Amino acid sequence: MNTIIKVCGMTEADNIRNVDVLGVDMIGFIFYPKSPRYLYQIPRYLPTLAKRVGVFVNETKENILMYADRFGLDYIQLHGDESPEYCRTLHSNGFRIIKAFSIALPKDLLAVSDYEGFCDYYLFDTRTARYGGSGQQFDWNILQRYTGSTPFLLSGGINPYSVKALKEFHHPRLAGIDINSRFETSPGIKDVERIERFLKELGKAPATNYKL
């Protein structure tokens, strides 16, 4: 399975290093102060193999520029109410953009088409009352109504027991999956062995079909 694997919400240097060498494709850092996985300082180790993703919620463009430079970010993930124009501006300045959308009902896909051409990937997550993940899974069948051209990452409650469901889920624009809280020992600290087993069960190959 040549699927992009993104591990999000990492905070501690040795833990980041141990996940980086597993062959995951992206490691995400959350720059949202209200998140329990908020990264407030540069860890001693940053990924050298996986791409670095900065996760922001309704952040100013100036602060995003600062974080992108300081952490050497490869992708900007926008997890708030950012407009298509906001994404267009960042994208036109050379940033690779992942725009997150919260999904609970088919109507939640209606706004996605407004972002076509301004994002490299979408990320479809479970709708919650607050910004950020819930650790819960939404009905993936809703995504069969998505007919856009932008590839997407699947998120929301994916856990070590999701392998069978992931292998059975098919969509022409599915590019990869995003894992977070269900692979943790505590907020921001990932269970490396759990991730390694998950990758093996998934049949994850080291390379992907998508140009990262």
Structure description:
It is a single chain. The chain is of the alpha/beta class and 212 residues long. It has one domain (2-200): TIM Barrel. The protein has helices spanning 13-20, 61-71, 84-92, 163-168, 192-202; strands at 4-8, 26-30, 51-56, 75-78, 96-103, 121-126, 152-154, 174-179, 184-186, 189-190. It is globular, with a radius of gyration of 16 Å. The relative contact order is 0.19.
What would you say about this model in short?
The protein is of the alpha/beta class and 212 residues long. Helix content is 21%, strand content 23%. It has helices at 13-20, 61-71, 84-92, 163-168, 192-202; strands at residues 4-8, 26-30, 51-56, 75-78, 96-103, 121-126, 152-154, 174-179, 184-186, 189-190.
CATH topology: TIM Barrel
What gyration radius follows from the Cα positions, in whole Å?
16 Å
Pattern of helices and strands = EHEEHEHEEEHEEEH
Shape label? globular
Cα distance spanning the termini: 16 Å
Number of helices: 5
- The share of residues in helices is 10-25%
Strand line-up across the major sheet: 1-2-3-4-5-6-7-8
Which regions contain 5 or more consecutive residues with pLDDT less than 50?
207-211
Mean pLDDT: 92
Q: How many distinct folded domains?
A: 1
Biggest sheet descriptor: 8 strands, parallel, barrel
- The CATH class designation is Alpha Beta
**CATH fourth-tier homologous superfamily:** Aldolase class I
Any guess at the CATH architecture? Alpha-Beta Barrel
- Helix and strand content put the structural class at alpha/beta
Q: Could you tell me the number of beta strands?
A: 10
Enzyme class: isomerase
Protein name: N-(5'-phosphoribosyl)anthranilate isomerase
Organism: Bacteroides stercorirosoris
Keywords: Amino-acid biosynthesis, Aromatic amino acid biosynthesis, Isomerase, Tryptophan biosynthesis
